[in-house]
Amino acid sequence: MNAIQDQTTTKPRYNYRETLLASQKANWRIEDIIGGDKRLGFVRPLMPESFARVEELSFLTPDEKLKLNQVRGFDYLCAFGLVEEFILPFVLDHARTQLQGDDYRVRAFLGFAAEEAKHIQLFKRFRTEFEDGFGTECLFIGPPSAIAEVILAHEPLAVAMVILHLEWMTQRHYLDSIRDAQELDPQFSSLLRHHWMEEAQHAKLDTLMVEALAEGRSEAELEKALDGYLEIGGFLDSGLHQQVEFNLENLRRSTGRTVTEEQRSEFMSKQHQALRWTFLGSGMTHPNFLATLERLSPALRQRIEQVAPVFS
Ligand SMILES: [Fe+2]
Ligand SMILES: [Fe+2]
Fold this sequence. Notes:
The protein is mainly α. The protein is 72% helix and 0% strand. It has eleven helices and no strands. The protein has helices spanning 16-26, 49-52, 62-96, 103-134, 144-152, 156-178, 186-214, 219-255, 261-284, 287-296, 298-307. Helix 1 runs parallel beside helix 4, helix 3 (62-96) packs across helix 5 and helix 10 crosses helix 11 (298-307). The chain binds fe (ii) ion (2 copies).
């Protein structure tokens, strides 16, 4: 088993058997989360304000702010559908490298992949639910397969770092901003709670995956992998900027709201920063993500800490 030892004990930080058992306990069905009387609502915000940041846009009315919040809920659903699309083949490829040996490893990674396939379907299901209930067709960047192709062209350790970032980010979103937020639509919160439950095991498996891929690498090779992680981050950031343009159009379509040049520029800069924090900053500053980088090399952590303020 490729697990870097915890410096304070001789035990590996995570192991495949325990992760597999925990994932079997958490397992849920899509049918138990959405469908029947479990419908997405549109009278409340979908996203916590820490991610939506609609209150910063003082030129919008309360109704327009609510609509923009819901548009942000839509981009959240689409973004997760998009990232799960490259996580699934990557995890399957990683599982395939060692099909003999540790049976728990094989089962843990196949379980991880099966859960991501389920999440892709779950996010699609919620996206359809959103499109049915919101009343306006919204734009989103893509298609996911084209974005996945660009990301998967990078070296495996760089991609594994991005996946680790995304998994810890999901943990943080739920625990810091959604678990205790009473004002949000309960169905949207339920989606994030169920996703968080299964992603908790993914974050541990990703840690093992990053550690396995990093084993035996020189400092220069690790730095190069981090370059790849940052390149993917830059690529995603340009997609987020495009999405902010789309969200302004989504707001116009759903409310009829038009903006002056000055308001447009304020919308673009504040909302770009909101999307950056949601999908980039909140992952790259997660203590467990930074701790894994630091165990590979303290220089990697320092580089991330230098760039993180741009995404906060
Ligand atoms: Fe997922
Ligand atoms: Fe995941």
